[in-house]
Amino acid sequence: MDPSELREVVLDTTVNLLRLAETELPADAVEAIRKALTRESSDVAKAQLDAISRNLEIAGEGKIPMCQDTGTIIFYADVGSDFPLLSDLREILTEGTKRATEEVPLRPNAVNPFTGENSGDNTGNMIPYVNIDIGKGDTLRLSVLPKGGGSENTCSLKMLKPGEGIAGVKKAVIETVVEAGAKPCPPIILGVGVGGGADISLKLAKKALLRPVDNRHPDPQVAALESELLTLTNELGIGAMGLGGDTTVLGVNVEYAHRHPASLPVGIAIQCWAARRATAEISVDGKVTYLTHTAPDGAEQ
Ligand code: SF4
Fold first, then answer.
1. Which of 143, 202, 282, 283 stands 20 to 30 A from 180 (CA)?
2. DSSP SS3 for 241
């Protein structure tokens, strides 16, 4: 395919991914909320979960954002070195963000930290934030993670002493969830990054939010930690919107990196019930496969 035609496909797919992410949760997240509603014993929490489910239906039917806070736009591009447009990717994603802001529409959320000025189109210095991972091949796997401010404000980084071990990791996660309370609009999803360094653990934690909530880590030890953290955090009883209840956390996804002998960093990313994410794969011939959502009408296939 001609590079200029492929550029249009990537641009249109960027806008489609943003629209899908903002208006429809992936099936695993919807199912997790449905299950939480089914098993909830508190009437107050049930009412909250019911309102969230109705909110999702209205957003999906009307193709309107599920929350007024449409988030900071973050992209993950896993791209093969033989895919053309590598050097144009950031520019295309920025253009797509501007277009989606107008077309969906999205609330402008990019504010200059020094002047307080809002750029008006969800772009600015380093925003949208683009994580690019170059590997082999000629396809582009593009994900978008619009991240709400309320839940972002409760993320944390704990630099543990290595002697605190995995018990310390569990304590750090539980303390963060307790401290967050109602602020991140629970039920939440937890991304936990263990090891690496301060920045690496937080990067891993946030990227872990791209995994489906019902997907366990392939390493059985890590998968067991995910399940245990899910049980422990739900025993806190914070509940939907912090009003008490059986489900505080819908899922826990843990990722790890080898650490320095002297460090045990734990990055904890908190995602709200509006757990927005969308992924598509674009091949070099312009074929687009949507991986988290049904392809929008008229989208390139
Ligand atoms: S934390 Fe999430 S659900 Fe709450 S206002 Fe922000 S985006 Fe919306």
1. 143
2. helix
User: For the CA atoms of the chain, what is the radius of gyration?
Assistant: 19
pLDDT category of residue 300 using cuts at 50, 70 and 90: low
The H or E element containing residue 289 is strand 288-290
pLDDT, tens digit, 9 for 90 and up, residues 154-170? 999 999 999 999 999 99
Nearest ligand 1 atom to the CA of 152 is 1
Averaged pLDDT for residues 135-161: 98
pTM for this predicted structure: 0.96
Beta-carbon-side half-sphere exposure of residue 251 (alpha carbons within 13 Å): 25
Q: Up-side HSE of residue 162: CA atoms within 13 Å toward CB? A: 9
pLDDT band for 11, please (50, 70, 90 cuts).
very high
Counting Cα atoms < 13 Å in the Cβ hemisphere of 70 gives 26
Q: What is the pLDDT of residues 205-250, one digit of tens each?
A: 999 999 999 999 999 999 999 999 999 999 999 999 999 999 999 9
Sign of CA pseudo-dihedral 210, 214, 215, 221: positive
Give yes or no for residue 69 CB within 6 A of ligand 1.
yes
Ligand 1 midpoint to CA 54 (Å): 16
Residue 247 phi, psi (nearest 5): -115, 110
**Ligand 1 pocket mutation pick from 22, 70, 73, 151 by most atoms within 8 angstroms of CB:** 151
The helix (run of H) or strand (run of E) holding residue 256 is strand 249-257
Level-2 CATH architecture, domain 3-24+66-148+276-290: 2-Layer Sandwich (3.30)
Every domain range in the chain assigned CATH 3.30.360: 3-24+66-148+276-290
Token pair of 30, please? 């919807």
Mutate to test the pocket of ligand 1, among 52, 106, 122, 272 (most ligand atoms within 8 A of CB): 272
